[in-house]
Design brief:
About 30% of the residues lie in helices and about 30% in strands. It is α+β, with helices and mostly antiparallel strands. It has a seven-stranded mixed β-sheet with strand order 1-2-3-4-5-7-6.
């Protein structure tokens, strides 16, 4: 479901990076997460679904990005064995193009590696070229299509995989990305 869903044809130039704090998603964040869900997805996840995900700490990892104590983005990861799956990444549309999604994805990949994953997968809307560009920076490559994956719109999903997460070359990729993605920090 990781789609970073902007309106079709929406193109906006880069904006200054947002100062954010990344923290584990907790029950108290769910209301704000749902506000973003409703803004970016035609069929948002429910509170029950998020709650069922965040309690499975042995196989799940969910975080939120906060700016001025307000949730402006969130992301989730599922890890089984040596494979990880990005379940979702979403950023409040008012905060798009501020490197928040990149910071969230960096945190997910870092956690996947910490948990021993050697590969990571995700699905993204075929038309969402901005998100695909971000995923490509992290080594994700297209491997197939899931027809009509997004039932609410009938859109296809592009399946992407990043392999070799534990390899030296991938560590070098992350180090390069870390230099280009400003450190998350909280602004009060």
């Amino acid at each position: 479901m990781a789609s970073l869903y902007p309106p079709p044809g929406h193109v906006e130039g880069p904006r200054p990076p947002a100062a954010v704090e990344l923290v584990p998603m907790r029950r108290r964040h769910i209301g704000q997460v749902l506000d973003i869900e409703r803004r970016v997805y035609p069929r948002p996840w429910t509170m029950t679904l998020f709650l069922s995900e965040i309690v499975q700490r042995s196989t799940r990892f969910y975080i939120v990005a906060r700016a001025h104590r307000r949730v402006v983005g969130y992301a989730g990861l599922m890890v089984f064995g040596d494979e990880a799956h990005v379940t979702n990444i979403a950023v409040d549309p008012d905060h798009h193009r501020r490197k928040i999604a990149a910071r969230l994805l960096f945190a997910l990949i870092t956690e996947a590696r910490r948990r021993g994953a050697t590969a990571c997968t995700l699905e993204v809307r075929v038309a969402n070229h901005a998100a695909q560009g971000l995923y490509h920076q992290f080594g994700f490559a297209p491997v197939g299509i899931r027809k009509n994956y997004y039932a609410e719109t009938g859109e296809d999903a592009l399946i992407m995989w990043a392999e070799g997460l534990q390899a030296h070359a991938y560590s070098a990729r992350l180090a390069d990305l870390a230099r280009r993605i400003p450190e998350p920090r909280e602004v009060r």
